[in-house]
């Protein structure tokens, strides 16, 4: 129980970290999306390389993991770019919530990639979650945020797909620091040409803000990694949705963003089905403990 409490504390810290990352990305102002993505990933690359050096581990990519790691990098990077674009165009809470559809996309992608058979609850929860997303996207001809919302939705898809390939690569023996370095390096190389062509000079304030974005992301990444060492994902995943609450708070306080009623309905639906899945997993585990 103490381990689970520590895990919950860590996951809340991660939610604060990631929500602050989105806040600083928005606060950086009118910079190209690729430029923001480059500096965020460059910071993560430095931390990942430092971690590998401190642990004195070899940088080695197992041959049977190379395709999985490449696909993790491809979907993770494009999903991150899409998320950053959505952050600049949508309310912070909306962009964060669309990104938090990633677990539901992971359920779908796990079927062909990991050969995992979803339960009826998983299928139902996924369908309902996407219905909730429609309240946020509001696909009508009058909605000026439709395209950014769809791009934000792809951000959730990219993240969910990347998680699946991380699991498959990890199952084949790939080490976490190696996967992180590959992802960060791939992201930097992909965004570097766009950075060079469309570079916008940054003020000292913008440099500091982008450093804070990278630092916040690093705090979130380390906290979420630590959380899952204390307790399994099924016990903690629902608390990760607190990121949306924190993002909404920063949006209201600093940008005067008040989510529209339709978006709030979408938040309630998506978080609601996440709570139901979490509660079902918790009860199943308690039954298994009682029968042992």
Q: What key phrases describe this protein's structure?
A:
mainly alpha
Question: How is this structure best described in words?
Answer:
The protein is built from 12 helices and no strands. It has helices at 2-27, 33-54, 66-89, 92-99, 102-113, 120-137, 146-171, 176-197, 204-230, 233-236, 242-255, 261-291. Helix 2 (33-54) crosses helix 9 (204-230), helix 3 (66-89) packs antiparallel against helix 4 and helix 6 (120-137) packs antiparallel against helix 12 (261-291). The radius of gyration is 19 Å and the shape is globular.
Question: Which bin fits the share of residues in helices?
Answer: over 70%
Shape: globular
Major sheet details:
none
Rg, rounded, reads: 19 Å
How many E strands? 0
Number of helices: 12
Roughly what fraction of the amino acids lie in strands? under 5%
Distance between the termini: 18 Å
Structural class based on helices, strands and sheet pairing? mainly alpha
SSE series: HHHHHHHHHHHH
